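Hey, can you fold this one?
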Amino acid sequence: MRILVTNDDGINAPGLAVLEEIARAVAGDDGEVWVVAPAFEQSGVAHCISYTHPTMIAKLGPRRYAAEGSPADCVLAGLYDVLQGARPELVLSGVNRGNNSAENALYSGTVGGAMEAALQGLPAIALSQYMGPLSEDLPSLFDAAIGHGKDLIEKLLKDAIWDQGDYRLFYNVNFPPVGRDAVKGLKVAPQGYRKDTFFGVEPHISPSGRKFLWITGGPQHLPTAPGTDAAVNLDGYISVTPMRADLTAHDALDKVRKALE
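Sure. Predicted structure:
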């Protein structure tokens, strides 16, 4: 199997090294794992592409490249430059340091990389590791992902739905903030919503007198609705959320059509 790997934490991120090992185990001895990841951290860039300026790319080693762009840029670079049209059979994005459950998925470059792969007609999985007090003293912060990543990916490839639609399915996976032995299992869960948790800004004045704004996030351990992704993660389960890039509010179409047409 030929697998393309990317992330949004950057080419030197420990979560990327974890995913490379998982990908090599999934690909097998005769497989190929290609890495095209951002040269610098790209957290929070979502599905951004560098449409108005060029992206420099550098080869760092065999099948290993860094691109000065977003995860979606890296997927494009991998497909149309690095692999020279030899399409991968799977694209993996992550393992992100921190969860991409609930509203975080909308901002996530990790999810954005998987989304771009899906738009390119490829099977894709985004993988993220929830962090918390129970994972701080483990041998690795990514212990749950290390312990369950390979089996989970193989199960998705074997048993999940991989359609061929215009906006084809891709999968958002979040490992819970516990050690591998404390993981209770897997749950297919919809994207949740953390109520009263929003991004904001915190202003600071530099020594030169100029104002700068830091983006601030909200609490990550507030439960979402029962059965949704963050809720099951905080209960010790791996969440698997099927997603599409189609942003249409299908549940509202008929009502809006009756109101406006």
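The mean pLDDT is 96. Let me know if you want another pass with a different chain boundary.
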